[in-house]
């Protein structure tokens, strides 16, 4: 369908084997996802069609009326598609910035999205770094990723999504 994405809808987007797009055989894509004019605060999920989407991850979070971008790297289904879901009505834009193929140097090993850290959870294996306290300006949070939650112990790099929630002032994370 076209137009705004509505809650409960799973929108299919062809990203590989189409023009413009990644070539057929692409296993994952890197995108700039922009959430445009959401009606309320919420989230968008991007994932390979046919995979479980769950509710325990977000590709981007936003507030009402935002035009908020975020980089997303996601596996592509065998049909060359990704799916999009949202918690609130909004428009989205995708800008394809790259893709992964088999045999191209380091390989991209897609995992189902899994939360690795959440500073809001005081008594959790997901938050040994801050104990449920807010991450403060200038604070460095070190996380072990390799060998955790399905990431191979020998991983040389990972693709992660970092989301700030309820920031007290305009900010950025790196």
What is the topology?
Layout: E1 11-14, E2 28-36, E3 42-48, E4 60-62, E5 67-75, E6 81-86, E7 91-100
Antiparallel strand pairs: 1-6, 2-5, 2-7, 3-4, 3-6
Pick out its properties.
four-stranded antiparallel sheet; 0% helix; 174 residues; 7 strands; three-stranded antiparallel sheet; mainly beta
Question: Explain this structure to me?
Answer:
With 174 residues, the protein is mostly beta strands. The protein is built from no helices and 7 strands. The chain has strands at residues 11-14, 28-36, 42-48, 60-62, 67-75, 81-86, 91-100. The strands form 2 sheets. Strands 1-6-3-4 form a 4-stranded antiparallel beta sheet, with no helix packed on it. It has a 3-stranded antiparallel beta sheet with strand order 5-2-7, with no helix packed on it.
Question: What's the quick description here?
Answer:
Helix content is 0%, strand content 28%. The chain has 174 residues and is mainly beta.
Q: Give me the number of helical elements.
A: 0
Low-confidence stretches: none
Helix percent band: under 10%
Structural class based on helices, strands and sheet pairing: mainly beta
- Cα separation of the termini: 35 Å
Shape: globular
Number-wise, the strands total: 7
Note the run of SSEs as H and E. EEEEEEE
* Order of strands, widest sheet: 1-6-3-4
Main pleated-sheet profile: 4 strands, antiparallel
Beta strand %? 25-35%
**Rg estimate, integer Å:** 17 Å
- The oligomerization state is single chain
């Amino acid at each position: 369908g076209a137009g705004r994405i509505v809650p409960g809808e799973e929108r299919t987007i062809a990203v590989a084997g189409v023009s413009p797009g990644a070539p057929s055989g692409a296993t994952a894509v890197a995108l700039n996802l922009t959430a445009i004019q959401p009606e309320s605060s919420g989230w968008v999920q991007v994932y390979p069609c046919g995979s479980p989407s769950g509710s325990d991850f977000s590709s981007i979070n936003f507030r009402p009326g935002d035009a908020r971008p975020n980089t997303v790297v996601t596996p592509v289904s065998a049909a060359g598609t990704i799916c999009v879901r949202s918690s609130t009505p909004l428009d989205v834009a995708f800008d394809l910035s790259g893709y992964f193929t088999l045999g191209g140097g380091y390989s991209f090993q897609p995992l189902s999205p899994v939360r690795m850290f959440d500073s809001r959870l005081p008594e959790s294996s997901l938050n040994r770094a801050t104990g449920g306290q807010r991450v403060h300006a200038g604070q460095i949070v070190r996380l072990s990723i390799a060998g955790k939650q399905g990431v191979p112990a020998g991983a040389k790099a990972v693709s992660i999504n970092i989301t700030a929630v309820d920031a007290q002032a305009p900010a950025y994370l790196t």
